Amino acid sequence: MSDAKVRPSKLKFKGEKSKKKRKRDHDDEGGPGSSKRRDDEDLDTWVLPEAANEIRGPAFIMHPSEPSPLSINYSATAAKVVLHALDKDRGEDDEPVKLLDRTPGDVSQVWVVTRIAGSPTINIRTGTGEGKFLSCDKYGLVSADRDARGPQEEWTPVVFPDGMVAFQNMYEKFLAVDEVAGGALQLRGDSEEVGFRERFWVKIQYKYKKEANEEEKKRKDGASGPSAADELTANKLYQTWGAGRTVTSAEDKKEIKRAKKEGRLAEALLDRRAKLKSDRFC
């Protein structure tokens, strides 16, 4: 009787292209472990962000609650945000997995983070269902039932030295896990200060962390960053989830048109200056 083939447990996302791994036994000098092998780490590996600008793309948000840590999930069936007890999820050997070693095992645990061009704020959108934005009203009620983003759908991530993250809303209040009547837990967005309840572990995919670090390096080196149109196009890419569907607000469309128009005007001015300079020396 042949052994059954074990299926990989890694979560795959719609639209992702599978990457072929290449073996590198030695570097150019013949020695193993060179810097060229540094990217042997799978780009889809889930890692912790070290800075706020690294929080982008698919994200897995957890809270170290007791007795069971929690993940922030979106129930497409109930159309609401739920807190999922992670002790229900077991590893391949049926043993509990350490919190920081955990990765999402279901798309309901994945949120898609998009960044606002020229702003420290982010939008957090569901990775399943109709692609709803996580929002918080002035009373601290947290929901994910809006198709378009506005001020109530903006969050400012704060990364602490220990790697944990707090999320501040437009009312300068913080997202928190709160205990309500009967001992049930729910998300609230009305905390004045950051304590244990307001700190979350966030895991992102390594390729987006690498992308953020490359952008920061270019900025520090004085290279011009991406245009507003380019960044909004990137946001559209992050907002696409399955079947190529894109969630783009009317405000985004206006901004893209404005950025493209400014780009055309800048090119026209440069052409005009070049022509004047050429005529002067003819």
From TrEMBL:
GO terms, molecular function: actin filament binding
> What UniProt keywords are attached to this protein's entry?
Nucleus
- Signal peptide as annotated in the record: none
One Pfam family, please name it: FRG1
Location comes to: Nucleus, Nucleolus
Entry annotated with the keyword GTP-binding: no
Q: Which Gene3D superfamilies match?
A: 2.80.10.50
Q: What is its main location?
A: nucleus
Q: Which family does it belong to?
A: Belongs to the FRG1 family.
- What's this protein's name? Uncharacterized protein
Q: Which organism is it from?
A: Ephemerocybe angulata
